Structure formats: structure tokens, C-alpha cells
Amino acid sequence: MTARLEKFGYEKFFADGFAAARLDDSVPARIVIRHKTEYTVITEAGDFRAAIAGKLRFQTEKVAHLPAVGDWVVFRPNAGESSGTILAVLPRKSTFSRRVAGQEEAEQVVAANIDTVFLVSSLDQNFSLRRVERYLVLAARSGSLPVIVLNKADLCASLEETLIEVQRIAGGVPIHITNAKRNEGVQDLLRYLGPGISGAVLGPSGVGKSTIINRLLGHEKLKTQDVRDYDGKGVHTTSHRELVMLPTGGLLIDTPGMRELQLWEGEDGVEETFDDIEQIATKCRFRNCRHQGEPGCAVQQALDDGRLDGARLRNYQKLLGEIAYQSRQYDSHAREEYKRKVKKITSAQKRGYKKP
Ligand code: GDP
Ligand code: ZN
């Protein structure tokens, strides 16, 4: 029986992982809250407080191997109690991590197994195409599928022009324009959060992430934050649940670590901007010129003239390559399941999904 687990996104990939890693008296579980030293996990039988097995903690030579919110784990409940032990972390479909300073630089996973990541920008005077690009690269590295959200549409004087600019760099990634303050366009994002699909919202501070999250949670918010253990007594946490179920059955992951990921700019090495190359590229004969020997390529001309540095162009092309790679992920076999679920929710919406 895995009906409850499936509601939380349990699928073949994780079931296979569990079958390979299971131990005596263990069950599959998903981490929904990370506390200071403990976690809250959901299982088929209910919610539990979970500690990391000493063995796992000490065998784990890398911080990145420690459990994070969204992880599926091998969990052993204590007999008759609403607590237990995490024995192992199952292979992840995607990860968002940040670098933590320590004796040596280490990677800390802040959220795992996110299917859809909404990359939010605000269309006010702070809007930056370059930043959208960097977030696209971040998403590509995470393994989750991005959706670009352009919020604060009410503050944009040139909506159509901006949309065209974003389309040029988006490489087929879906783009949504929203006004979260007035709840316009936000509910359309639910099509990417069908039953069992995990989403997260990423972007700089102040762009409207919290507003969007609250809109997505709608009136269910209080219910979802009310965490109870399955026998109704014992564990009760008042802390904000970091993985919550939406009215659509989609799952939203919002951890402090995800919120801090906005700081990744400047620590990542792709903060370089390529305005100059894009400026030159507007003079290429073909609008979709890849600057790889096409006739009438202004970028090639600039290289020949010495106006443009070859290494710089390679960096730029690497960046574009990563963005193109992630848009191809939409078509890859591994994402069939995801697409099937998205389709399901989309057609449910067409049949008149009740908007909160
Ligand atoms: P976060 O830091 O990304 O979580 O941003 P918040 O959700 O806290 O929003 C920052 C501010 O922007 C708040 O004052 C919101 O009311 C405002 N805001 C959010 N969405 C919109 C919008 O679509 N238009 C306008 N004008 N303001 C918005
Ligand atoms: Zn060119």
C-alpha cells in the first residue's frame, strides 16, 4: 500500500531506490520539515519525528549526503511510537544546494526532488534579463524543470517588448506573466503542480515569492500548516511545514535554505554579463544565428577584428548550452511521467478546475 506516499510524489524511481536500500523493519518516508537536529517525515502510516541514525551521520563524509527537505529516505519507526530513525537517503531526482564555508568548502542540499521550479522576477525597474539567465542555469544544474514567472506586471510599461526579450533567452521554457498582488495569472501556475508534483519558488528578495506562494496555497493554507501525527497525540509542531500539499494535490517546498539561495549570485562564477555579445549579435544576418560559422555572422566578424575575446564567447555559448539543455529535458524520456501528470492537471483545468 502506497496510496498516501503517492500523494506525496512517491513513484517508481523512488520505489526502486527503496527496494535496493531497504533494511529490516524499514519503510519509505519523505522529509517534510527539517528541525534543528530532527526531521518530520511522512510515511504510509502517518507522520513521525525522525532522527538521523548515528551510522548514517558518521558514514556520511559529505554534507550533501545528509537528508534535506523533499528527500525520500529509508525510515525505521520505533515500535509503538511516533518517532524513528532515518537509515539512508534514497537517490535524488534533483537537488538545490548551496556552498557552506567550513574547514573546506562543502555543498549543502537545501531541498531535494523538486520537479518544477518557478523562477520569479519582478517587472519593475530592477528587472534584469541577465538574472533570468542565471536562474535558468541554476535550474538546469538542479535537475528540475523551470517555469519563468514575470511578476508585478502592473509595474511594467513595456510588457510586450520585455516578453519578447525573455522569450529570446528562454529556449522554450514556459513564461508566465503575473500580478500576484491582484491574484492575476498566478492560478495558471497550478498546471505545473499536478497531484504528486513537487514545486518550489525561487528568486531574489522582494519579487513577490511569498505573495505567489500564499496565492497558490489559497484558503487551504491554515489546514496545510496544521501538522498532526497520525495517532493525534504526541508530536505536534507549530513550526511552518516546509513541504505542503496544495488544494490541487501538488506539493510546494519552501525552506529557509531555498529562500537564501537568492544569494547564489556572485558565488557561482556565471555572474558575468554578456550584453556586449548580444548587442553585436543583433547585427547577425540570421536572427537565430548560433555564431558557429553561419554566413553574415557579426559575432564572427567581431572575433576576427579582435573586438571580441574568444574565451568570452565560449563562456557565453556554454551558458546558452546549459539553458538549451534544460529545455530539451522537457522532451526526454525521464520526464514522461512528469508530462503525463502535467497533462492530467491541465485537462482537469480545462474541464473547469475550480479556482480558489
Ligand atoms: P518575496 O521577498 O519575494 O517573498 O516578496 P513578497 O511576496 O514579500 O513581496 C514583496 C512586495 O511586493 C510586497 O509588498 C508585495 O505586496 C508586493 N507585490 C507582490 N506581487 C506584486 C505585484 O504583482 N505587483 C505589485 N505592484 N506588487 C507586488
Ligand atoms: Zn552570429
Report on the architecture of this protein.
By secondary structure, this protein is of the alpha/beta class. Among the domains are: 3-89, OB fold (Dihydrolipoamide Acetyltransferase, E2P) (Beta Barrel), CATH 2.40.50.140; 95-254, P-loop containing nucleotide triphosphate hydrolases (Rossmann fold), CATH 3.40.50. Helix content is 33%, strand content 22%. It is built from 12 helices and 15 strands. It has helices spanning 3-7, 12-21, 54-59, 129-142, 159-170, 209-217, 221-225, 256-260, 275-281, 298-305, 310-329, 336-350, and strands at residues 27-34, 39-43, 46-52, 72-77, 83-89, 95-100, 106-112, 116-122, 145-151, 175-177, 198-202, 227-228, 236-237, 243-245, 251-253. The strands form 4 sheets. A 6-stranded mixed sheet has the order 10-9-8-11-15-14, sandwiched between helices. The protein has a 5-stranded mixed beta barrel with strand order 1-2-3-5-4. β12 and β13 (236-237) form a beta hairpin. It is globular and about 75 Å long. The relative contact order is 0.13. Residues 220-239, 263-271 and 348-356 have low confidence and may be disordered. Bound molecules: guanosine-5'-diphosphate and zinc ion. Guanosine-5'-diphosphate is lined by residues 151-152, 154-155, 179-181, 203, 205-211. Zinc ion is lined by residues 281, 284, 289, 291, 294, 297-299.
Helix and strand layout, with pairings?
Blueprint: H1 3-7, H2 12-21, E1 27-34, E2 39-43, E3 46-52, H3 54-59, E4 72-77, E5 83-89, E6 95-100, E7 106-112, E8 116-122, H4 129-142, E9 145-151, H5 159-170, E10 175-177, E11 198-202, H6 209-217, H7 221-225, E12 227-228, E13 236-237, E14 243-245, E15 251-253, H8 256-260, H9 275-281, H10 298-305, H11 310-329, H12 336-350
Parallel strand pairs: 3-5, 8-9, 8-11, 9-10, 11-15
Antiparallel strand pairs: 1-2, 1-4, 2-3, 4-5, 6-7, 12-13, 14-15
Helix pairs in contact: 4-5, 4-11
Bound molecules: guanosine-5'-diphosphate and zinc ion.
